[in-house]
C-alpha cells in the first residue's frame, strides 16, 4: 500500500489539513497551496511543500514528509533538502518549518542525537497518527488520515463510519472528494479484492469513480513495468551472460519507455560494455 501517495493526494484536496495537525498553525493557513519541488546540485525531490501566498510578502514555507517505513537517515535527508531549498529561495521565505508524519513512534529513525536541537525546538513537528486519538473524535479530514493506520480487522467498520459521517457533515461537491479518498485508501489496503467486494465491504457503489480507475490503471502500469523489466533482463542475460547485480539494479530502475527502448537496442549489443555504455548515455 503506497500510503505516502495517498497522503499527498489528501493534501492536494485540502492543503489546510497539514495545519490541523499542528498546535500553532499560521494565521493565513487557508491561503497556502500545496506543491512538490525539485532541488538540483545535488538533485533532491521534495514531495510535500506548502507555499505561503505570494501576495503577502515573504512567508513561512512548510516541508512535509510522510514516512511509513523506517529510514535510518531520514532526518539527514529532510534537513539537507529543506535547508538547500530554503537557501535557493531565501528571498521568497522568512522562515521554514518541517512536519514529519509517522504511523507510530516505532517507524522513526533510531539515532536522533545529531538532530537533538532541531527535534527539541519548535521548527520540526513530528506527528504520530496512532497517538491522535479515537477516529470518531477527530476532525473529519484528520480521521481520514488515521484510517490508513487502523488495523485491517477494524478498517471496514471505520471506513463505513467515515462515509456516513461525510454524508451527514459535508455538502457536495466537497463530500465527493472525501468519499473518493476513503475509497482510495480502502482499495489500496485491500487490493486483492474485486470492485464488487470493495463495494460490499463499504456498502457503497463505486461506479468506476475517477480514483478507482486511477488505482487500477496504476496497478496495470506496475504490472507492465515489472513484466518488461523481467523480459529485458532475461534477453540481456541470454545475449551477454550473467549480469552483475549493480547492472540489474540500473536496468530495473529505468522508466517503462526506456526499458522498451533498451529491449530494441540490446539486439545490437555484443558485450557487457555495450550495455554499460548505453546505460551511461
Strand portion: 5-15%
What would the average pLDDT be, to the nearest integer?
A: 86
Rg of Cα set: 22 Å
- Indicate the overall shape: globular
The biggest beta sheet is recorded as:
5 strands, mixed
Second-tier CATH architecture of the largest domain: 3-Layer(aba) Sandwich
CATH domain class of the largest domain = Alpha Beta
Please bin the fraction of helical residues.
40-55%
Structural class: alpha/beta
Number of beta strands? 5
Distance between the termini: 34 Å
* Uncertain stretches: none
What is the CATH T-level topology of the largest domain?
Trna Endonuclease, Chain: A, domain 1
* Count of discrete domains: 3
Q: Going across the biggest sheet, name each strand in turn.
A: 1-2-3-4-5
Compressed to H and E, one letter per element, the order equals HHEEEHEHEHHHHHHHH
Tally the helices. 12
Write the SSE topology:
Layout: H1 3-13, H2 17-20, E1 33-39, E2 44-51, E3 59-66, H3 74-88, E4 93-102, H4 116-120, E5 124-128, H5 140-147, H6 155-169, H7 174-189, H8 195-202, H9 210-240, H10 245-252, H11 256-265, H12 272-280
Parallel strand pairs: 3-4, 4-5
Antiparallel strand pairs: 1-2, 2-3
Helix pairs in contact: 1-7, 5-6, 6-7, 7-9, 9-11
Structure description:
The protein is an alpha/beta fold and 281 residues long. It has 3 domains: 1-131, Trna Endonuclease, Chain: A, domain 1 (3-Layer(aba) Sandwich); 133-207, no CATH class; 215-280, no CATH class. It contains 12 helices and 5 strands. The chain has helices at 3-13, 17-20, 74-88, 116-120, 140-147, 155-169, 174-189, 195-202, 210-240, 245-252, 256-265, 272-280, and strands at residues 33-39, 44-51, 59-66, 93-102, 124-128. It has a 5-stranded mixed sheet with strand order 1-2-3-4-5. The radius of gyration is 22 Å and the shape is globular. It starts with a helix and ends with a helix. The mean pLDDT is 86.
Amino acid at each position: 500500500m503506497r500510503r505516502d501517495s495517498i497522503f499527498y493526494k489528501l493534501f492536494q484536496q485540502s492543503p489546510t489539513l497539514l495545519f490541523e495537525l499542528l498546535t500553532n498553525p499560521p494565521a493565513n493557513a487557508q491561503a497556502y497551496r500545496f506543491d512538490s519541488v525539485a532541488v538540483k546540485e545535488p538533485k533532491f525531490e521534495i514531495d510535500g511543500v506548502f507555499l505561503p501566498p505570494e501576495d503577502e510578502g515573504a512567508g513561512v514555507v512548510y516541508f512535509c514528509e510522510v514516512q511509513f517505513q523506517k529510514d535510518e537517515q531520514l532526518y539527514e535527508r529532510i534537513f539537507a533538502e529543506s535547508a538547500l531549498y530554503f537557501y535557493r529561495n531565501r528571498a521568497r521565505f522568512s522562515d521554514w518549518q518541517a512536519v514529519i508524519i509517522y504511523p507510530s513512534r516505532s517507524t522513526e529513525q533510531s539515532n536522533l542525537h545529531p538532530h537533538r536541537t532541531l527535534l527539541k525546538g519548535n521548527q520540526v513537528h513530528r506527528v504520530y497518527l496512532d497517538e491522535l486519538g479515537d477516529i470518531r473524535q477527530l476532525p473529519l479530514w484528520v480521521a481520514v488520515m488515521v484510517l490508513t493506520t487502523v488495523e485491517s480487522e477494524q478498517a471496514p467498520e471505520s471506513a463505513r463510519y467515515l462515509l456516513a459521517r461525510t454524508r451527514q457533515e459535508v455538502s457536495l461537491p466537497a463530500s465527493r472528494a472525501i468519499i473518493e479518498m476513503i475509497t482510495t485508501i480502502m482499495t489500496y489496503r485491500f487490493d486483492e479484492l474485486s470492485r464488487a467486494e470493495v463495494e460490499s465491504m463499504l456498502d457503497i457503489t463505486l461506479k468506476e469513480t475517477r480514483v478507482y480507475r486511477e488505482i487500477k490503471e496504476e496497478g496495470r502500469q506496475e504490472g507492465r513495468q515489472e513484466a518488461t523489466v523481467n523480459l529485458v533482463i532475461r534477453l540481456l542475460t541470454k545475449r551477454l551472460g550473467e549480469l552483475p547485480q549493480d547492472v540489474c539494479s540500473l536496468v530495473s530502475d529505468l522508466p517503462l519507455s526506456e526499458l522498451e527502448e533498451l529491449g530494441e537496442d540490446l539486439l545490437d549489443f555484443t558485450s557487457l560494455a555495450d550495455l554499460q555504455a548505453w546505460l551511461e548515455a
